[in-house]
Amino acid sequence: MSGWLSAILYILLAPVAGGLIAGIDRKLTARMQRRIGPPIFQPFYDLFKLIDKENVIVNLYQNLYLTGFLVFNIVAGTLFFAGGDLLLVIFALALSGIFLVLGAASATSPYSHIGAERELIQMMACEPMLLIAAMGLYLLPHSFQVRDILAVDKPLFLYLPGILFGLLYILTIKLRKSPFDLSTSHHAHQEIVKGITTEFSGPALAVVELAHWYETILILGMIYLFFAWNPWVAVPATIGLYLAEILVDNTNARLTWRWTVTSSWLIAAVAGAGNLIVLFYFLKAGF
Amino acid sequence: MERLVFLLIAVPLLGGILQAVMPGARARHGVIWFTCGLTILLAHAVLVMTLGEAPIRLNAGLALFERQGLLPAEIALIALIGFYGIRYRNPLAVVLAGLQALLLIGQQQAGHPEPLEQPLLLDGLAVMMVMIIGVVGGGIGIHAIGYMQEHREHHPEGPDRRASFFFVVFLFLSAMFGLVLADSLPLLLLFWEITTLCSFLLIGFERTPEAMKNAFKALNLNLIGGFGIGLAILHQSINHGTPTLSSIASGAAPAALLAAALIAIAGLAKSAQFPFSSWLLGAMVAPTPVSALLHSSTMVKAGVYVIIRCAPVFHLTPAGFILSLIGAITFLLTSTIAATQSNAKRVLAYSTIANLGLIVTCAGIGSHQAVWAAMLLIIFHAVAKALLFLSVGTVEHKLGSRDIEDMNGLIVCNPRLALAMLIGAAGMFLAPFGMLISKWAAIEALIQANPILPIIIAFGSAPTLFFWTKWMGKLLACRPQACPAIRVCSLSEQAALGLLAALTIGICAIFPMVSSHLIEPYLALHFSGEILISRGNLITMFIMLALIGLLPFSLVYRSRAERMVTPYLCGANLGDTGHFTGSADSVQPVYLKNYYLHSLLDEATLFRLGLIASGTLMLVMFAAVGW
């Protein structure tokens, strides 16, 4: 499949797939908590209802930043599924995150402000591991291009176990799941109201939700890369790891930001960097 | 060409002398406008004349100067430093001046090899530096007219020393041109020491005890660094005849490596890398145009400039790797410290040190792509950082504070100034702007050489994301308090900020051309390899740039009526965004402050860590020269 085709498929289908995954996620979470839970299509009903709501704002510019958030989230994913440069994907994703933070910071409500600061801290916690993961994936094909990494005919997860572990750790942050849902949360028990999304309502909140679905698919794509040598392994492995994230989400209490930063940096420095250094010298020695 | 280069060095000097002798502020301001404008034009002329040409060796009157005037000039310089040391009771400066004199005698004893007929070398790297010094320096000079006017209004006490201020600034520009053009090391060292002296005079401009203390700190650390070049000259003279930068760059290890390592020490000091970093933070007491000119966009770049000149020698050597490690550690620690600072000038100072560290990291690796990234970093950083410093300076005059917390909601009070600052910040860390392009290239270059360096860079770039974004968030907050009355900016300040903001964006758009016409030809002479910025990536970046440009237009097409409400303040809102009714019917103001992570990070601890690590590494570097 050519890069452009899969990029277009991503733009069109990622919201559908992302919404479905969110629906399944909610259903499973409900069952883990001994509730019946909403129908699987509930996220779509929610989205359409949000779009129909009145457009209430606290300043003229906040929706501008949200547009940037959504647009660059899609740019990052499109680039990834088109087989583009993994570093550029990470930078575009960071840019989109920054737009979300700026939107919340412009609102000057204490809750959205704290949410924005926490979101930034979460981004700071993720960034090193994301870059190290990209470097790890670079080592075998000698390229940062996703299409070259896909073409590697080896089980990458066996070469990069530490990096995969580190990446899964911080992807919990990216997926906004406990114990790292500091800036905002899908759970009802958030201590800072709705955190970074406090001042977004109606259509604006729909944009945030849509962007989250796009991002979920991008994250699943990143996990897929580690198993890509064999799709029969890759698909179940990706699904299995996502289910594990749901389990973690429901069995862990929220951590403080200090814990979030120090633990993710520590894991990136030990598991991620350690794996990268060992693999670099193994490959150099000709293994 | 000879005449053009002569003019390039002479025009700022002449402008400076006119400042010193001309009466009347109006006439002096005219001269500043004219000199800065002419310098910008001359730099462009040099660029146009040399595009596509092979490197040229030049005389431009400096061969005669090197033969006849170098020794007297050096003696005068040492005497001047000694004089200031005695007058302000700084024994260390006197001792260092004495050592400098001893070194000079040593060089004379070693026998001066016949000076070159053509001591200047004009190649791609030199032209790039000339453009930065000319355009950014000229812009900063223009900004300083309005800035110093207002500075005088804020500090009316004491004599008006603006004339001598501009004299030193122009003397500095002239010396800086000389520094980047000189191939002959003794000549380079003279210009080097002149910039050190200018920096000393400008940091001490206010003459307060704090300013003098910091000025001497900068002077002494840079004099210590300068010994590196002095020793390199001595070493070259004893062993190989003519001491030139180009002969070191093309020389063979270990002799050339030792000379290169000595020069790198001077470079580390000038670029305020660990363990020399403290002087740059002290230098922030100087008026802001000085911080922009000397301490972010030009003088500190001289340090990384000489290291880049020596990069071919460092390629694939243990000493070069350790030099890179010093740069990488500096990058990691100073970007982390910057996240804990709320004083805008200190944030900028730490971020400057960090980015210079990144350049040192690339130069120490010395591969084709690493040096490519280093040179791009110099360009992008010079422009964006100058813009940031100047806008902080202007804001400081308007708000009476340089604290980022006080810039809350600047976008509402003074949108143009806020926009300039936002462009500068975006240029420093956001895709698809300049610094990010270079950081990306740096990571690609480093992972090919060694896994440890890019890992450190990965950890160091995370805090930059944090501190720049929270700063931007402050600027963009639709402020809860009423705006203080903000005076309009002077014409000169607006002109300079506009020029630099346009450059910050413009260079991102034309950087492929900068690379292929200026940087690539230089690299082809000294390194083997090629740059692979794929077409696909370039197109993606242009699409991103265009999307950011288009984003504001989404404000025009609003789909539906919006209803404006006040934010949720967890109390009864009083109708504005700034107050709410708290407990017992008390009226509470809303006050939002950024996170500075003090419970996790401590400036002093991190700084000490940097001193110890880099000090050790510097010793290891010299041990490694012998390997």
Low-confidence stretches of chain A: none
Integer-rounded radius of gyration of chain A: 19 Å
Q: What is the percentage of strand-forming residues of chain B?
A: under 5%
Shape of chain B: globular
Number of domains of chain B: 1
Most extensive protein-chain contact, per-chain counts? A-B, 66 and 65 residues
Number of domains of chain A: 1
The count of β-strands of chain A is 1
Which consecutive residue ranges of chain B, at least 5 long each, have pLDDT under 50? none
Task: Compute the CA-based radius of gyration of chain B.
Answer: 25 Å
Care to describe what's here?
Chain A contains 11 helices and 1 strand. With 287 residues, chain A is mainly α. Chain A has one domain. In chain A, helix 5 packs antiparallel against helix 8, helix 5 packs parallel to helix 11 and helix 9 packs across helix 10. The radius of gyration of chain A is 19 Å and the shape is globular. With 627 residues, chain B is mainly α. Chain B has one domain. Helices cover 72% and strands 3% of the residues of chain B. In chain B, a hairpin with a 5-residue loop joins strand 4 and strand 5. In chain B, helix 1 runs antiparallel to helix 2, helix 20 runs antiparallel to helix 22 and helix 20 packs parallel to helix 23.
